[in-house]
Structure formats: structure tokens, C-alpha cells
Amino acid sequence: MELARQISQTVDLDHGCMGNEVETQRLECLIHPGKVTFGQLPTWVIPIQPRWAQELFDFRLWDMPLFNPETSLVINPDSAYYKSPLQGPNSQFGRILWYVSGDKRKGGGRVRACSALTKRVTGTVKNLFGEFQRFGVYEWRHLMEHFKGADAQGLAIEFTSTELFENPITFDDVNDVLESHGMRRQQFISAVAIPDAAFHEIYSRSTQRES
């Protein structure tokens, strides 16, 4: 009953009004894995290497193939991913579509999961590591390999409620969807903001079981 009350209160808000994006995301979290089809919630396609997708998305599947999960829902705590400030999303909240890069034979070249973006923090690498070290995935050496210095500027993206897709959508298919919604084709080298309608089409196609 309490959950129903919270959902009812959140639904009654004006989600089309700028400034209510946090409440739209709260509603989506309450109905997870459901998605709302209204509001101003931004969506980003963010590239990630296969090794970090495995580390971040599913702690249960160490001895199983990464991309053959038994369930599409990943039950995991909040996680964090590091990027260059110029290559990450510029909003504090929204949705993430994870584009796994790399070798197609190893599961790369597809959008494979969706998460809720809950926090965006910029700062020096040493400060970011101090704040997000509790997530336990990245070691200091990993950040040094990527950023080359403790005082380099970095971006930490905090996310939660990750859902693995039943039918991951390919690089070409994603770009076909983006083109149909007025965007240019993308290489997904950095985070790419996409229209809400494009997100829903990608999400719908990715969560349908192949016949």
C-alpha cells in the first residue's frame, strides 16, 4: 500500500514541466524495470569496454558467460564508472544505455544494458577515487593507467537499477533508430544524448525475446 501511495503521488506530478526530472526518475525507479513514456528525463548512450561491463553489471556471473545471463534484471548495489569529463553525460540524472565496445565475437558492438544515472561528480582523480572507492571495482592502478596522474581531471558516474537486455541491439540497428529520429550516425566514442522516443524504440526492441 505504501508503494502504491508513492507511485500515485509521483504520477500526479506534472512530468512535462522542466525541473521535475528527478521525480520522473523516482517514478521510474519505483516501477523498475518499467519505463515511463512522458517527462523530460534525459537518456545517454555511454560506451564501456567488455571487461568493465562484466565487473560492473553482474557480480553473480563470475563463472558464466557474461552475455548469457539467466535473468534480465541485475540485482546489484549502486556502481560507479569513470570517464573523461568531456566524454561523459552532462546531467546529474537520467537513463544510461550501455554500449559495449570491442570485439563482436566477445559481445562487443551492441547496446546490452540500461541503468539509472543517479549522480555525476567531477574532480581530480585522487578525490574521485576517495569518494567512490567503496564500490570496490576499480583499483588505483586502473585509474592511473587511464588518467596518467592523480591530479588529472576525471568524471565519476554513479548508476543503479541495471537491466540486462534479452535481445541486445547492434551498432548498426542503434544508428538506424537514431537516424529515424533525426540524428546523425554515431561511433559512440563518448556519451551521446538521444531523444526520448529513440530510447523507447531501442529499449522496446532490446527487451523483446527473439522468436
Q: What portion of residues is helical?
A: 25-40%
Shape: globular
What is the number of beta strands? Answer: 6
Question: What is the CA-atom radius of gyration, in angstroms?
Answer: 17 Å
Mean pLDDT level: 83
Low-confidence stretches: 59-64, 66-76
Order of adjacent strands in the largest pleated sheet: 2-5-4-3-1-6
Per DSSP, the total helix count is: 7
Order of helices and strands: HHEHEEEHHEHEH
Instruction: Characterize the biggest β-sheet.
Output: 6 strands, mixed
Helix and strand content put the structural class at alpha+beta
| End-to-end separation | 37 Å
Query: Which percent band covers the strand fraction?
Result: 25-35%
Short structural summary:
The chain has 211 residues and is of the alpha+beta class.
Defining key terms:
alpha+beta, 211 residues, single chain, 31% helix, globular
Describe the structure.
It is built from 7 helices and 6 strands. It has helices at residues 2-11, 21-30, 50-57, 125-132, 140-147, 171-180, 196-206; strands at 43-48, 79-83, 94-100, 110-124, 153-170, 192-194. Strands 2-5-4-3-1-6 form a 6-stranded mixed beta sheet. Helix 1 (2-11) packs antiparallel against helix 2. It is globular. The N and C termini lie far apart (37 Å).
